[in-house]
Each structure stands twice: as structure tokens, then as C-alpha cells.
Please model this.
Amino acid sequence: MLKKLFRQKLFKFILGGGVSAIINLLLISLIIDKLGFDTPTLRNIANVISIEISLLASFFIYRIWVWPGGSWTLQEVLWRQIPLYHLSAGTSVIARIFLLFPLLDWLKIHYAINTLVCVLLSTSLNYLISDRFVFKTPLQQTQEPTLFPPEIYYPEGLAPALENSSSYSRKVPQSEKSREIKLFSILIPAHNEEGCIVETVESITQLLEKEGIDYEIIIVNDNSCDRTEELLQKLSSQTSKVRYINNYFPNGFGFAIRCGLENFQGDAVAIVMADSSDSPENIVDYYYLLQEGYDCVFGSRFIKGSKVVDYPTHKLFINRLANLFIQIIFALKLNDTTNAFKAYHREVIQGIYPLLSHHFNLTVEIPLKAIVRGYSYKIIPITWQNRKAGVSKLKIKEMGSRYLFIVLYIWLEKHFSMGDYVRKQTQTTILK
Model:
């Protein structure tokens, strides 16, 4: 395992940063204690000097050990790479101090965990900027065969997720292209949704009937205390394709989804919100892509071709930061992991157990586990609009630490499980 880690650039980058930090501490101690820089002004000067020297030390560590090769001309190193490296390091520090720490503190994350997460994210940001802009080596200078045109450079840390940015897809293994979905399940969790559940169900059923898709709609009534259950009884009495069950777990979005996943009968399932925010047309898109053989289909509201209507500004800001964090630490192309509206083959659901999330963090746990465990997927643009009736159940402050727990838990699985949970037959699949 250690040999494998020492071959990875990200690990080398983190180790090099640790060496740089030690150099910083030794230098400031030497300057203050040995050279007598012992006034407030001199101590600050000592701090600046030690930071600058440690930055230069880390630059050359990375240049020699992490990103070897390339041009060593004075013009390249002194006038391009070193200034850009200072900009990269400064950007990561500023993001950590003025953006990440205050945000996580507002979400009431413990300061120790907050600090660790900020260090991880700012280090990852520094790594990505350094890899893409500072130590960039054109592919045509290498002798190794490549799948990419020589004029295109992909960051080493993100290459597995960026090999084709136009189709947003992951290659479907030939052996899986013939799987047929005879019954498509639509899973809808509902908690106090009397104002919109009927419209949501009817709009879905009308379109699926028009498309000739054999389906079932399973609605999980999550301990509603309004007329939701009464309306569900009427809907289920009108057609055998719509049925509802009462959540037998404790109250919570994640528990409601888990209840539905234990009871759906189809060959594949799409998780759809009860508030009509998700487009029925995209459900049909999901169905046909699953028919092509993809294990999962992930909708994104934030790629070319997508449409978002009336997203609350404060939630949008936090959403983009949270998804950026997930993108960076997992090196993903998917930029909307937190959205629940996704579809999965039955075998994916069976392959991602056990599920741990009780609440909205399940929306992150399911797709990340599917990706980490090697299932194929396709990302497509979708349409989303804010609910017209009822109240959103997502409480951002309450969910911050829960999202963080799940993300770090799956990150640990990815890096330390030694592939125990990865499907052996799909380990070599690539994006296409």
C-alpha cells in the first residue's frame, strides 16, 4: 500500500507540503531565537522571510519530485512558474481563511474538524491549480501513448474524470449493453406534500403512459400530518401502477428513501422529489439511457443545456461550494452530486449497501458509493424549478455536518478499502 501511495502525485504533493511546513517552523525559530528578531516588527519580518523561503522550498520539491521533467529555463522557472505558484498558494490560503472556514463555522462544524477540512480542501485546490497551470507539461513532450489530442492537457488529478468533457458519460462495458428494463420504478418520498403530490404523480403518469413505458410509482408517506396520506389513498385506488407505503423507519428524508428502496419492484429506479421540481421529461431520458446499459444516470442542473428556475440565492451559493468540495476531493466531472434526482439499476442499489444516512445526506451517499464502487454512469443536463406549494424540508445548518460525515466516510472507503467494494468486472472502464 505504501509503494502505491508513493507513486501517486497527490500523496507526494501533501508530503511535500508537510516538509515545507517543517522548514517554515525551523526558519522562523532560527531567525527569532538565534538572530534576535525579537520585536513585533522584526518577528513579522521573520514570519514573511520564513514563509517565502518555505514556499520556494516547496516549489522546488514539487518541481523535482512531483512534476519532474519539463523546461528548466530561467524564463520558464523564474518568470512564469514561481509567480504562478505564489498565486496558487495564495489563492488556496485566501479561500481557506475568508470563505471555507467562515462557511463551515456558520454551519456549526466543530472548529477542529473545520480546520482539517479546510486544510484538505485548500491543499486540493492548490494541487489542482499547480497541476493545471503552474507545472503544466504539454502531452506532446512525452513519449507515452495517449488517448488525447496533443494540444489538450488534462490535470493529472482530474484526468480520470475529464477524458471526455462533451458527452458526460462513462463507458458502458459491452457485456452490460443488453440489459432490459421491463419495469421502471419511480420512487417519491413525501412529507406534508398535500399541495403538490397529486400534480407531481399525474404529470409523471401521463408522460410515461404516452411513451409506452411500463412503470410503477411508489410513494413513501414520511409521517405526514396533513392530507397527504388521504390523497395518496385516492391516487392508488385509481390505478394499480401507483401505490404508497407508510415509512416504517423513523421520520427523515433518508429513511423514507431507504424504505422505498427496500420495496420497489422494478429493474431500475428513479428517485424523484414530490414537489414537482423535477421534470417528467428527464425521467424519460433516464429510462432510455438505462436501457442503453448504463448502471446509473445522474442529472445535473449546472451544465450546458440544463435549466434552473427560481433557485434561492443563498441555497445556490452553498450548493455550488458543497459540490465543488465533492468534485475536488473525488476528482469528479459530476458537479451536482447533492441533487436527489438520479436513476439506478437494481443491482446498483443492491451493491451500495449498507446505507448510513438518515436525512438528505443520502442524496450524496448513493451516487458517490455507486461511483467509488465502479458502476458505469452518464451525466445529462436536466430542468429544475423551485416548488410552487409547500415548504422545503432541507435545513442547511442542520445538514452541514451530516453531509461532511458521509463525504469523508466514502472518501476513506475509496482510498483505504484496497478495492474491497469495487466491482471487479468494471475496474478498467473509462469515461467516453
The chain has two domains: 2-141+148-161, 174-426.
